[in-house]
Write a structure and sequence with these properties.
Structural class: alpha/beta
Number of helices: 8
Strand content: 15-25%
Shape: globular
CATH superfamily: Vaccinia Virus protein VP39
Radius of gyration: 16 Å
Order of helices and strands: HHHHEHEEEHHEHEE
CATH architecture: 3-Layer(aba) Sandwich
Strand order of the largest sheet: 3-2-1-4-5-7-6
CATH class: Alpha Beta
Number of strands: 7
């Protein structure tokens, strides 16, 4: 990440307004989200970029889509020919919107993924991390982030990768996430920022590789 790069989003986002994710994602909002063609298109575009960063050529790779929502990314991965995709989300109602049995839907907390060590060839997470960690002064959020990255590290096979796309509020939050990961795991990685100077098109990815 360029040291000269800086930004701060002033508008409050849902994760700042609602303390509990279940308060925001009501049944009505879940169906609105899941039936949004524009949201589906955005998620697919972000998933393509995540795959590019992962450089995952083997279509037999076992992939975890953490915080999958209605399964846009998981279904898209399946359509691209990836045979072994697991779609995981905390909100069970998200997994019921579509018939996504082909991507093995699982309701669980992405901070405590219920898998054995060395299970996955790759982990992706699209637009979910901001619900886990958004306040550098909140110790509970810090512990959830630590649990998440340790859980991801444990579930990955050696030399495999994670790509997390998310919407942080500012550069300070990004830097803090980097420090927490460096202190608590042996991941190597960096932040990749597309269109850094365009607030509408800016996309931020966290790329991590297990040693």
């Amino acid at each position: 990440m360029n040291e000269d790069f800086n930004f701060c989003v002033k508008k409050k986002r849902p994760e700042e307004i609602y303390k509990n994710i279940f308060d925001y994602y009501t049944i009505e909002r879940i169906f609105q989200y899941a039936n949004s063609k524009s949201m589906k298109k955005i998620q697919e575009k972000i998933t393509l970029r995540a795959l590019e960063i992962l450089d995952l050529a083997n279509k037999n790779s076992i992939i975890l889509d953490a915080g999958c929502g209605p399964g846009f990314a998981s279904i898209f991965l399946k359509d691209l020919g990836y045979k072994n995709v697991i779609a995981l989300d905390l909100i069970l109602d998200f997994l019921k919107v579509y018939d996504i049995k082909e991507v093995t839907p699982l309701s669980a907390d992405m901070c405590y993924i219920p898998f054995r060590s060395h299970t996955f060839d790759a982990i992706i997470s699209i637009s979910a991390l901001q619900w886990i960690y958004r306040d550098i002064n909140n110790e509970d959020m810090k512990m959830r982030l630590i649990n998440l990255i340790k859980s991801f590290y444990n579930a990955l096979k050696p030399n495999c990768k994670v790509v997390i796309q998310f919407y942080p509020k500012n550069k300070t939050l990004i830097e803090n996430i980097g420090k927490i990961i460096a202190k608590n795991t042996d991941f190597n990685g960096n932040f990749i920022i597309d269109n850094p100077n365009n607030s509408k098109k800016r996309k931020i990815f966290l790329f991590l590789k297990k040693n």
